[in-house]
Design a protein that fits this description.
Elements lengths: L2 H20 L28 H22 L10 E4 L5 E3 L3 E4 L5 H14 L12 H16 L6 H9 L4 H7 L3 H6 L1 H10 L4 H18 L4 H5 L1 E2 L4 E2 L1
Parallel strand pairs: 1-3
Antiparallel strand pairs: 2-3, 4-5
Helix pairs in contact: 2-3, 3-4, 4-8, 5-8
The structure holds zinc ion.
Length: 235
């Protein structure tokens, strides 16, 4: 081969490698979340007075739980969600693998609680980054509502969607509950904004930030989003 041709081939190979490195790492191709252990319907909101409503929730559980698993990436970052119980003390996630919902809980509330299971097994479950749990669970909720729920959009979705286009000052000027919005909807809207309101970009961002946190072995989220989660103020 002529030296010029060899040089060209080498440049093409380098360009390919550079492109491959720039992409966020997706979960291993061999990871099939559908093969991971999953909840039995008998453990899902047992005792619900409205069986039709229970079954509608179950349909969405079967769609969104695999999504949450895929964000976990590998089985060692996921603890099986074994039960969803009914309770009247508000929606809750337990590290034992149980969720509590009410009979009137919205689909999106379930999406949020399911993602706690992913966040807890992620790189962010340490240091100051752990304070971003509620924001990421709400960002996941936004993306799952966008991807899977039929129109019309929920009021919750429309609020976060609007926040994603507004400044901190604008959000706080109309917030009915500043303390809540500082911890949940506003930082969630920063994530949604960064992901261009796009579920697939959100997935890429999640894995990119996981990698960053792992590589630096230090908090990354406050700096990345320009928001101090500990004080509820922009940096
Ligand atoms: Zn939560």
């Amino acid at each position: 081969m002529k030296p010029k041709l060899i040089l060209c081939l080498a440049l093409v190979a380098m360009a390919c490698l550079t492109t491959a490195r720039a992409q966020p790492l997706p979960p291993a191709a061999s990871t099939n979340v559908l093969l991971w252990p999953t909840m039995d319907y008998t453990k899902f909101m047992a005792g619900h007075p409205d069986e039709a409503k229970r079954q509608q929730m179950w349909q969405y559980f079967q769609v969104v739980e695999p999504e949450a698993k895929s964000f976990a990436g590998t089985l060692d970052h996921w603890k099986m969600l074994g039960t969803i119980t009914l309770g009247t003390t508000g929606p809750k996630w337990f590290s034992s693998g149980r969720l509590q919902l009410g009979t009137g809980s919205e689909y999106g509330t379930m999406f949020h609680e399911i993602f706690h299971n992913t966040f807890n097994g992620s790189q962010f479950h340490k240091g100051g980054d752990n304070a971003w749990a509620e924001a990421f669970c709400d960002a996941f909720r936004y993306m799952m509502e966008k991807k899977h729920l039929p129109d019309p959009r929920t009021n919750w979705f429309l609020k976060v969607d609007r926040y994603a286009d507004e400044t901190y000052a604008q959000v706080m000027a109309t917030s009915g509950d500043k303390h809540f919005d500082q911890k949940y909807c506003y930082p969630a809207s920063l994530i949604v904004h960064k992901a261009g309101k796009d579920p697939e970009k959100f997935r890429a961002l999640w894995f990119e930030l996981q990698k960053l946190r792992e590589t630096k072995n230090a908090d990354v989220l406050n700096t990345y989003f320009g928001y101090d989660m500990q004080t509820g103020q922009p940096l």
